[in-house]
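Q: I'm a student working through a structural biology exercise. My instructor gave each of us a protein and asked us to get a predicted structure, then write a short paragraph describing it. Mine is Squalene synthase. I'm not confident about reading structure output yet, so if you can add a plain explanation after the tokens, that would really help. Here is the sequence I was given:
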Amino acid sequence: MGAAQSKAKEMVALVKLRVAAWRIKRQIPSQQHWAFCYDMLQKVSRSFALVIQQLGPELRNAVCIFYLVLRALDTVEDDTSIPTEVKLPILQDFYRHIYNPDWHFPSGTSHYRVLMDNFRLLSTAFLELDQGYQMTIEDITRRMGAGMAIFICQEVETVDDYNEYCHYVAGLVGYGLSRLFHAAGTEDLASDELSNSMGLFLQKTNIIRDYLEDINEIPRCRMFWPREIWSKYADNLEDLKYEENSEKAVQCLNNMVTNALIHAKDCLQYMSALKDNTNFRFCAIPQIMAIGTCAICYNNVDVFRGVVKIRRGLTARIFDETKSMSDVYSAFYEFSSLLESKIADNDPSSALTRERVDAIKKTCKSSGLLKRRGYDLEKTQYRHMLADLYQQPVLPKFPDEVRSWYDAVI
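A: Happy to help. First, here is the predicted structure for Squalene synthase. I'll explain a few features afterward.
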């Protein structure tokens, strides 16, 4: 695919994504507690809010509340200003509080503070869910809170610790979503192993990408890169952000990405078994974003200098074009190939990285469903082109393909 054609595709997808976001705002329920929950969902995770809207109404409500309850729990865990002796019992008992509209605990900042200050509205919405959904949300919240409490009191030392922590904060989310899908009658119950991998792949990708933000956290940082990995490259994890340590920092980063890639095959297997297309898109879009983020972070010293993420236009294409397992296999294959092209033979992890990339590519090829997508990770000049689309009284001048599509949907 040529650069001009790729650019045009991204521009069309950007407009579609903006229209989708606009439509979501118009669909927020009128009841105060539900309006609050869906408004908060958009504020704490716009990308998740877009994906969740594709689910059926009943399951959408359950997943929305599930996400916000866990986000509230995570807000308590992340707030480094809360003394440990105060935080521990809150994490351990959080699953009880979701049944109590009178409970709230001020913590976090910005939108997360608003969520915690208005926890009664989230609790009110939770209490309106079917009992099957409530039981799943309660169980996962209980197990996650207990796991978070363990790691408040200990560091992530080994790779086993790293896997255990990621299980508590993300693998259990995979468990919960699989149970919610099953409770809705739309899917067979997936295995815990595959559900866990779905969460771990996303969580490890986020931990890798957010190195600089997390290491600079105020009043004190909380890091989850395992000592067993980073100690091979530095005396202190913080040392990796300094320019004089760039070579070792990148080698450590590549080791971390290689560790995350081990979950990709399980994720492909999980997604290939999904029956409902809305559930499929809900799961597949974040997983493609994760493999793309791995590809863009790999061998990239900018992870230690600032924010590294997939540009807006490519994100929009992923949202727009992910409709079948063929699209998933194609995206995983192309992003894995892009990552492979960045592997240096002298990198200490290169052999294992090639092995894991090769396993992903073989899985995708053996499906017989590959097609050319032409995903490109290079930066473009129109990253912020549509940022203020809906603030403009007149539609900006786009190519005819984009204008025709826009006129048709509006």
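A: Here are two points you could use in your paragraph. The two ends are 29 Å apart (CA to CA). The CA atoms of residues 52 and 104 lie 26 Å apart. It's a good idea to check both against the output above yourself.
Q: Great, thank you!
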